[in-house]
Amino acid sequence: MEKGGRPADNSAESTETRILKVATRHFYDRGYHGTTMREIAADCGMKAGSLYNHYTGKEELLFRIANDTMAELVDGAQTAVDQGTTPAQRLQGLVRQHVRYHAVNRLQAKVADDQLHALSQDRQAVVLKIRDGYERLVEEVIADGISEHGWAVADVKIVAFALLTMCTAVGTWFREDGRLSADQIADIYTDLAMAMLQP
Amino acid sequence: MEKGGRPADNSAESTETRILKVATRHFYDRGYHGTTMREIAADCGMKAGSLYNHYTGKEELLFRIANDTMAELVDGAQTAVDQGTTPAQRLQGLVRQHVRYHAVNRLQAKVADDQLHALSQDRQAVVLKIRDGYERLVEEVIADGISEHGWAVADVKIVAFALLTMCTAVGTWFREDGRLSADQIADIYTDLAMAMLQP
DNA sequence: GTCTATAACTAGATAGAC
DNA sequence: GTCTATCTAGTTATAGAC
After folding, report:
1. Which of A34, A166, A191 is opposite residue B165, by nearest beta carbon?
2. Cβ–Cβ below 8 Å for B169 and A172
3. Which of A36, A142, B130, B192 counts the highest number of beta carbons within 10 A?
4. A96-125 pLDDT per residue, tens
5. Which domains does chain A have, with CATH numbers?
6. pTM (2 decimals)?
7. Is B191 on the interface with A (CB under 8 A)?
8. What is the Cα–Cα distance from B153 to B45, expressed in whole angstroms?
């Protein structure tokens, strides 16, 4: 499978990264408050006290997951927008990347979406600010499509929300061993998105 | 406001109903595991121990919320299907009722969707079975639209999910004091839904 | 960097007086 | 049907040995 010269040494994954992955799975399955540090530690092959050598506490784990996820989403979206030359191309790129990300990284995406209430106000605000910027990016592309292509949009904000939440929800039912791949689903969703906008 | 001869006696609301409403608000804000019986009791004007005169425990509160919500959704959907005479009418009725319900009852709808993991396996299965029936109802209407109207649907299951999750998400951003009413939003969403299906 | 032990606290649920 | 008091268990986080 490996193409490069680098050995497939999975143990190279840092302890910090492994803890985040395990915490993500637990927060996804049982929620932030339903997960204990003991359970996370056990799945990492250590005791609860040892986790505090890597993170200051449970809340920092959630913050890192949510913050990293949002940052990755914005990065991908900005790339998609930069690569498109027309509003249609940019929107298709946005939808494709959003659907693919929420399918491939469905655990962390759902945790980042649903568990924000468990963060302190300050940390919550940091994550929400990134998310607001993301939504504005989508709204701008839709607004461009209206003025340049005459897209039929009853309300930019509502349609942007409808579009994004439809794509976000892919993460709630997508399964890695399911009937369709993330790419196939992204194809269907880009078509649905364009159908929602055609005059 | 009251039209009938019955007095507007809000205290007629039973203690059981009030407890459920308060619990719904808390489960929505902080999640099931993030909510304590003491908090629910305080908002009901009683002490934690008193709650157990009305419900056997915390989990029963969540089960009642989730089960009642799903039952109401299925009822509304069945009515919408029965009242339509064509697949297009039935689908529009389904979308309208689904959007309206998730806007008007957004707290309980979100709790019923997001907190199922906290239920025992048996109780979870009860709720999921109702939800499965609901989804099949939508898939059938879409299948009818394909054969009778030639709707353009790449994949019935995927499009049914896309449609339903898009409408469900209205509950995550709808606000009672927002710019648009639940009915106005339902109008926009029925149009979006039909646009997604047109050949 | 992991362990054991423990501090300090909070949870759901119950018993029995009123 | 509500109260107070309490039980039992489990929580995050820390301290200090190794």
Report:
1. A166
2. no
3. B192
4. 999 999 999 999 999 999 999 999 999 999
5. 1-55 (1.10.10.60), 57-197 (1.10.357.10)
6. 0.94
7. yes
8. 53
